[in-house]
Amino acid sequence: MFTKIVIYIILLVVPITANSQTENIKGTNHNNQLPSEFNLNIPSLRNYIYDRLPSYYKKGKYERMTYRFADYQSNSISNLVSSGYIYSDWLQFENYLNQILQKVLPKELENDTIIHAYIVEKGSYNASTGGSGHIFFNVGLFGYVYDEATIAAVMAHELAHYYKLHSLKSFIKQEKGHFNIDFLDIGKKRREQFSVKMEMEADSLAMEWLQNSGYHIKGLLNSYRIIERLEKQQIRRSKYKTEIKSTTHPVSKVRLQNFQQFFEKFKDDPGELFLVNENKFHLFKEQSKPEILKSLLYDFRYNECIETAFKFHLHDPDNSTYIYYLMEAIRRKCYLDVEQWGKLFYTENYYMKYPTSSNDIKKEKINYHLFKKFDSEIMGFGPEDINKIKAKFYWKELPRFETNEQAYNFFYLLAEILDCKECIFSNALSQINNKPVRDSLLNIYLKKDSVQYRVFAQDLLNDSVRKKLGNKKLLVFNNINGYIRQGQEKVPIRFRDDKDTLALLALYDSVSTSFPNRIPLYLTGLKFNKLNTYKLLNELESFSMFRTKSKGNRAKMHILDPRFIKLFYEYDVNEIEFVNCLYGEYRKGENNLEEYIKAMEMDYSTLFSQTKRTRYFEVFISSVREIENSVIKARHYGGEVSLKFKDPCFEQIEFELKNKIHLKEKAIKEIDLDYK
Q1: Closest Cα partner for 138 from 129, 147, 130, 146?
Q2: Is the pTM of this model over 0.70?
């Protein structure tokens, strides 16, 4: 293990410029109020989707199916746009993307005024579209692309999916049971073959549209090369895979072969890599990087966060933001499993191929450190990435570090040179068994200006984080997910107006009166005026569902992810419970379009007041806790319950909710006893 003195000596030859970058840990600032344009009108969107579909799909055997498709699409798209995961405060970037979109938009779609590009707060390389023409670009995509032409290529591909009605055709195949054959995985193979066919069709049309756009067709070649590098990384991460096979998408090898003839024919045609603004491209690409890392870290994808942050660091070693995310991803990963401190940095997750005497391929985990040799495959770097590496010193002379622990210590010393304030707090949180060092670091942190976790850090220093919390629980209710089964089809029940909301609030208030130690909160009600709290609660609920195993430490939520303690402080509680309900109602033979629309337009108040219905109800409760000598997460599923046939169900649902909360409370007491 390296000593501090050795690391300091190494740092003397590292070309780092102190204070050369502004620390950008938070990334963009999110609106707390959802802008009105992000609250899409579902009926209008549903009608738009339905009206543009060919008449062939709106009559006979497809009539009801096609309307259901438009209904599903309008709701899912509206929910995504208003989820808080679409950047509603990054309008300059969004406008820039839509300027590129207008360059790509073919004449076949020029009258589709609803087509629009959004940026999604997800760190993976992906883009998607549906039946409305809205295109959703993961912010992670911008960590890979080199130019506007590559973005335009992805746009052309997604627009081709929309134009060719691929989502509708896939929906119809699914509804007709084309993929439901279990024998010899026939259904799975059919689904994959159909999906690959649609992807190839979209590729072919994208070639034509990109060529006509003014962008160089090299953009498509670049997009396929990116996928090729991601596939190679996937192979290297697997102990058994030696090649990637086509499943929902064709493999890059097939796509490149399909593209090659087109590329050879038109590669010398005029076309530009940038048509809108090259400077803006590079600006937004750089601004995307902290967002990519933040998303990966918050999604518990620690290995990906480490790898991505290190790649960004190699290109910009003076940027303290990348140092922070490297440290935090290493810290959180090792907090959940202390053995990870001694594992190899980066290469621990990869395998090498070895030929055997029988000409087979054997794969073994890499047993050497990252800097023994430069491996472009596990780095996921293309030629342009390699040429831009500024921190080539890592592969020269002595290795800077080998294990995760050595890497963490090394990056902290870099952070000190760069005066990264939040890195001090990360280091303090890593001192699980060394309170004097932790407190010393906390004191240094608290003397800094504009730090992110000042109140929390002070409470850690005073050992009062949990002591200052109230003994109540926040009981978070979501909308009831409901459906009416008409024959073999499910019609989702949607909240229609304030009447539904008031009825639901009355139900939740009535349930809460039986639990004086709980504070009720209606989650959906926060979406429009407290969007950041709404989003953070949703992420906390995901954390409550996420299965974490703590090895070597008794994990505490506020140490693993400090963001969430803000919620406990805000509501003065030591536990946050999430209650999710599923209501199902069964009706026979009602399978025409009129019955679908009738069910779709029914409000909850009317539905729940009806009698002589076959109905079922399910409750799932999960929670995150800040209680000493107790588990940090709890989950309880009460199973499906049949409601009485002849009685209205509001009172029955209220009874079941109360009962399930009581049962959860009983179960968690037994779990806590075992934990102690």
Answers
A1: 129
A2: yes
